[in-house]
């Protein structure tokens, strides 16, 4: 049809089942703010919280009347700006149309009661660790590189030797049995879920030894593995601390999850237009969620958006045809995915480092300019990026092909 995306969104219906009463929304601190909108943390109580929780857990939970749910609320900054309210309304409709996917920041509900006054609140899933970009910046000191600097081989089992403190295994039965190769871990001790340390000589953990309090080395942080197989830094109390290390595998796993979410968006014919590490959010259990896929794209405090004609655009993430003709498609999202991969494997560097983006940027891309291999990527990963940056959009891989390629990297060769 000749309908623009805006017009199509306008035609989508709003279902009253999403409506959450303001009485049940308890606003907290601001998480971020942009040119038009803000994101505020909030707690939702009552029926909406129960509904969301029971959906999440396949209806296995018995809903308790006191349940509450932490959410993020997207709202306008000023009630004056009608165009932003419109954009938010369309975002709400798109989210409702999309349906749920694990790797999207899903809609929880909305409050339209003050829409006449230009106020609309959209309630979405809260992602505890914020954007992947800010996560990479905050945690880059605890990154474990699993790529061999000489031959570029990637072994997800490698635990970097630069970690000088002992490695602990949590004696959670599921972990013990799934850890087939403990020889890669410098395991000397482990601790159980209660924080009791167990002696471990690299083989199977045996009971006993000391409590954290009596551990002579308990003032050192220690590396452990939680029940999801994720590495966690335990502080002296045996409680996971803030700075859990992350590895090359984490980056691949995050990229794979982003590809899964994008594949779902593409299957629903929704074009993101602003895929970037700043728009990937990290939630509990190492789940990556794609955010800001509606129409209310906002310019948060970042220099990523450059003025082009009368709009601010994320030029370094844009494909040749998107810069040239403002032509945004699934394939231009794939180009942006390539740039996002580059961001991940450079631990959050700014794309095209040191380059001043001027009017010649498009010409440079057309002449074949592409970014170099990022510091923590290997040839396999760089090859995926280069495929995403093919000038001919039809030659770029699909999100399902990308997700398969990333998944293959996660499976160690036998
Ligand atoms: O990197 P951050 O801490 O994570 O800063 C940005 C900011 O708001 C502007 O986008 C944070 N943010 C956005 N959406 C969410 C969400 N659903 N859950 C948690 N934080 C969010 C983001």
TrEMBL record:
Subcellular location: Membrane
Domain Protein kinase: 25-410
Residue ranges that the Swiss-Prot or TrEMBL entry lists as coiled coil: none
Active site: residue positions: 274
Positions of Mg(2+) binding: 279, 292
Binding, ATP: 32-39, 74, 278
Top-level taxon in the UniProt lineage: Eukaryota
Record protein name field: Putative vascular endothelial growth factor receptor 1-like isoform X1
Organism (species): Penaeus vannamei
Shown segment, full-protein numbering: 584 to 997 of 1079
């Amino acid at each position: 049809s000749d309908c623009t995306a805006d017009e199509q969104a306008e035609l989508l219906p709003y279902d009253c089942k999403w409506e959450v009463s303001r009485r049940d929304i308890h606003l907290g601190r601001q998480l971020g703010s942009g040119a038009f909108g803000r994101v505020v943390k909030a707690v939702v109580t009552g029926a909406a919280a129960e509904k969301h929780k029971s959906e999440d857990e396949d209806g296995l939970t018995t809903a308790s009347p006191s349940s509450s749910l932490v959410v993020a609320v997207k709202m306008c900054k000023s009630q004056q700006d009608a165009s932003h309210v419109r954009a938010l309304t369309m975002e709400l409709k798109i989210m409702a149309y999309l349906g749920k996917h694990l790797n999207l920041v899903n809609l929880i509900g909305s409050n339209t009661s003050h829409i006449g006054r230009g106020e609309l609140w959209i309630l979405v899933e809260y992602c505890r660790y914020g954007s992947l970009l800010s996560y990479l910046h905050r945690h880059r000191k605890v990154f474990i590189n699993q790529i061999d600097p000489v031959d570029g081989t990637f072994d997800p089992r490698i635990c970097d030797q630069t970690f000088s403190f002992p490695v602990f295994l949590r004696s959670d039965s599921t972990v013990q049995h799934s850890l087939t190769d403990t020889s890669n871990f410098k395991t000397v001790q482990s601790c159980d879920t209660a924080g009791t340390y167990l002696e471990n000589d690299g083989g199977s953990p045996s009971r006993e030894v000391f409590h954290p309090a009596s551990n002579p080395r308990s003032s050192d942080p220690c590396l452990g593995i939680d029940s999801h197989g994720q590495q966690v830094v335990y502080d002296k109390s045996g409680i996971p601390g803030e700075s859990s290390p992350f590895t090359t595998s984490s980056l691949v796993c995050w990229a794979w999850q982003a590809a899964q979410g994008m594949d779902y968006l593409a299957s629903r014919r929704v074009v993101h237009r602003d895929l970037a590490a700043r728009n990937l959010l990290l939630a509990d259990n190492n789940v990556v969620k794609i955010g800001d896929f509606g129409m209310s794209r906002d310019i948060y405090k970042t220099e990523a958006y450059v003025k082009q004609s009368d709009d601010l655009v994320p030029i370094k993430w844009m494909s040749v045809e998107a810069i040239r003709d403002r032509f945004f498609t699934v394939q231009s999202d794939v180009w942006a995915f390539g740039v996002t991969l580059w961001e991940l494997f450079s631990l959050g560097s700014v794309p095209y480092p040191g380059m001043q983006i001027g009017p010649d940027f498009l010409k440079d891309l057309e002449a074949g300019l592409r970014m170099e291999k990022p510091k923590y990527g290997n040839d396999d990963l760089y090859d995926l990026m280069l495929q995403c940056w093919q000038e001919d959009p039809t030659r770029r891989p699909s999100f399902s092909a990308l997700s398969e390629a990333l998944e293959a990297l996660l499976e160690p060769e036998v």
